[in-house]
Amino acid sequence: KAGVTQTPRYLIKTRGQQVTLSCSPISGHRSVSWYQQTPGQGLQFLFEYFSETQRNKGNFPGRFSGRQFSNSRSEMNVSTLELGDSALYLCASSSNPGIQTNTEAFFGQGTRLTVV
Amino acid sequence: GNSVTQMEGPVTLSEEAFLTINCTYTATGYPSLFWYVQYPGEGLQLLLKATKADDKGSNKGFEATYRKETTSFHLEKGSVQVSDSAVYFCAPLSGNTPLVFGKGTRLSVIA
After folding, report:
1. Which among A48, A103, A104 has the least Cβ separation from residue B98?
2. Phi, psi at residue A93, to the nearest 5°?
3. How does residue B7 score in pLDDT terms, banded at 50, 70 and 90?
4. In this complex, is the C-beta atom of B93 within 8 Å of any C-beta atom belonging to chain A?
5. Residue A60 CA to chain centroid, in angstroms?
6. Chain B CB within 8 Å of residue A32 CB
7. Both ends of chain B: CA-CA distance in Å?
8. Are A101 and B44 inside 8 Å of each other by CB?
9. In what order do the strands lie in the sheet with B56-59?
């Protein structure tokens, strides 16, 4: 069974540009969550999608957006990049944590975004 | 929403030392509790979990007991190895709330 796949693994962008990150969940998983990991703030929740609908949203500015497709693949977009957006972006998939609270989340290896 | 307070590291131990990483949480409803581990260059992976009060989760020599009365889920291991060097995250999960993590505790084990 293939794991969670995130692409690209590494990315360097210039301040002001936009970026799109991709996440393919484990087959059969309908929930995809995104996290930002930085040394200072730790692991912060961005948003969660379930069956193409945003179910939860973290406390991030509107420059951060996401979507989920009918095959459960998800993308997140960051517009007008700032230096502080440099981080490891992690994606996690699970079957349906909203109903089954003992559901394990499976993480990808992340996309390392560097903004210069 | 849910939140976690976790002891911040880094924690540096000698091989075979005893490990405790403290975790307390606030959560809506009756959460399940998880410990995830992140090895260098990797994403997070589930280490252990507990789904109700007084349950003990265990895996790879690590243990944690769900203490509802103190809202705690402390991680312990009797004898750490160099290969246990990683970042450890505690997380509650309840209802339709997202899985949120503490800041993580970096553990370094030296031979």
Report:
1. A48
2. -120, 150
3. confident
4. yes
5. 13
6. no
7. 41
8. no
9. B19-21, B75-77, B62-65, B56-59
CA distance B98 to B4: 13
Candidates B23, B44, B73, B94, partner chain A, best to mutate (most A CBs within 10 A) = B44
Which chain A residue's Cα is nearest to B40? A109
Closest CA of chain A from B3, distance in Å: 11
The answer to whether A26 and A2 are in contact (CB under 8 A) is yes
Q: What is the pLDDT of residues A70-112, one digit of tens each?
A: 999 999 999 999 999 999 999 999 987 555 566 889 999 999 9
Whether A43 contacts B104, CB under 8 Å = yes
CB distance A43 to B101 below 8 Å: yes
Give the dihedral sign, CA A115/B5/B10/B13. negative
